[in-house]
């Protein structure tokens, strides 16, 4: 599987609880915090749900 780098670029303040938990499940904590994860279908699905809050780049 390919790896992707996910970066939180917007705050989760004033977002739904579901979006906050999705960001937390991706391993993101603060703005500009990045994680490198495998691009599994589950991860891609979570990124699509919060794509307005994160930036994604292939590695």
Automatic annotation (TrEMBL):
One Pfam family in the UniProt entry: Ribosomal_L30
Record has Ribonucleoprotein as a keyword: yes
Alphabetized InterPro entries for the sequence: Ribo_uL30_ferredoxin-like_sf, Ribosomal_uL30_bac-type, Ribosomal_uL30_CS, Ribosomal_uL30_ferredoxin-like
Domain of life of the organism encoding this protein: Bacteria
Gene Ontology cellular-component terms listed: ribosome
The keyword Ribonucleoprotein belongs to this UniProt entry's keyword annotation: yes
Record's keyword terms, sorted: Ribonucleoprotein, Ribosomal protein
Large ribosomal subunit protein uL30-like ferredoxin-like fold domain mapped to chain residues: 4-54
Stored CDD domains: Ribosomal_L30 (cd01658)
Binding partners and assembly: Part of the 50S ribosomal subunit.
Family from the record: Belongs to the universal ribosomal protein uL30 family.
Official protein name in the record: Large ribosomal subunit protein uL30
Organism: Mucilaginibacter gynuensis
Gene: rpmD
């Amino acid at each position: 599987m390919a790896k992707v780098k996910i970066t939180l670029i917007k705050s989760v303040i004033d977002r739904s609880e579901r979006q906050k938990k999705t960001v937390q499940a991706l391993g993101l904590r603060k703005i500009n915090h990045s994680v490198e994860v495998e691009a599994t279908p589950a991860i891609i699905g979570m990124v699509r749900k919060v794509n307005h809050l994160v930036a994604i780049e292939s590695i």
